Write the structure tokens for this entry.
Amino acid sequence: MDNLAGIILAAGEGIRMKSRTPKVLHCLCGKELIRYPVELLGRLGVDRIVVVVSPANQEALKKLLGDSVEYAVQTAKTGTAGAVEAAASMLRGEARQVLVMGGDSPLVTEGSVRRLIDGHLANARQMSILSGIVQDSGGLGRIHRDQGFQRNVLGIVEDTEDSDRDGQPVEVNSGVYCFQADWLWENLGRVEAGNGPERRLTDLAAIAAEQGAVVAALPSDDPAEVLGINNRVELARLEDIQRRRIRERWMLEGVTISDPSSVMIDAAVVIGQDTLVLPNTMLLGNTVIGSGCEVGPGSTVKDSTIGDDCRVTSSALEEAVMEAGVGIGPFSHLRPGAYLESGVHIGNFVEVKESRFAAGAVMGHFGYVGDASIGANVNLGAGMVTCNYDGKDKHRSVVEKDAFIGCDTMLVAPVTVGAGAVTGAGAVITKDVPPARLAVGVPAKIIDR
């Protein structure tokens, strides 16, 4: 978006969160609060994004956001006007319009901000405010308008100073503003401090009205957009709203969610059409699920990839991959590094870690496979375990294609079972088994089949 710069206010201490973590680094639907406005401005095509940080949180924010934004440090507690001033030297003369928003307002939508900007530009305003109509102001500043036909904005009345309440719906400030840049830089210095050192950006609305400048407030379609976060109760309340939005978006995209209120889906999750998400299921982090899948009930999938036409029944996945046509569960666990190729079947009570199952391999029930390579069409019997840890180091097991591993077999790594080989029930394999041979006993001996 040509000649539009963005400023995100993220220097607040967030004392009411009662946390060692800066407020804007708390997560909502699996995403840090600060990432919501940063990503929103990115989608809008804003030329430059400056995040205003404090000396205390600047390193943590830089570690998260990296070079995707620029940073301005607000060294003293000088309020929201002081925060914008901290970015002024970076943007003065660099943009014709400046969009300002808080780092703790994750429910603001791209559509509302785009309408705000379009109206601001079309009407050549000096200041535009995104507002919302709510029943309870909840500590938010009220948009003060005159009572004439035009209902012009006269200022923003902070909640602590607002005595004009009659129980009717009230128009409140969201903390999202668009300014004509030269006007903003010229008038920031006119904002005076109150009882303490803090100077409020909201005072610019009254300054604009007194000057006869063009200032307007645009109510959003969804009043939830104006809600911010000051404590963990509000964090939970907004997360509930955002999760509902996410579920509804995916249902409108062709995903079936049979009991929406029991399902949690993080912001970054992607789900294909005709997938069924059953009750008490959590889809978390950077999870991608293909089309035609069935996930749940009671499944947890985090930072994993699931191909088309898969089934995950009452099981857990973390940093794992399932190719197309794979079934798992109930009550199994794919840990980081698990990779199941197409057509693999994992039954109940199986744990897989740092292992790859080639196409068509089967492990029906009860066992552990860690640090292993399982070949195509291998059958792993019930109770089979890879003994991958010797007390000091991890070692790998290899089971080549078409092998049959009998029930309760122990593979003491490092060890290889050759293609087409068989192990007897209860065998303890401490040495490599040649292809097409049979290994039985404790320790196992190789015999002809």
Observations:
- The longest strand covers residues 345-357.
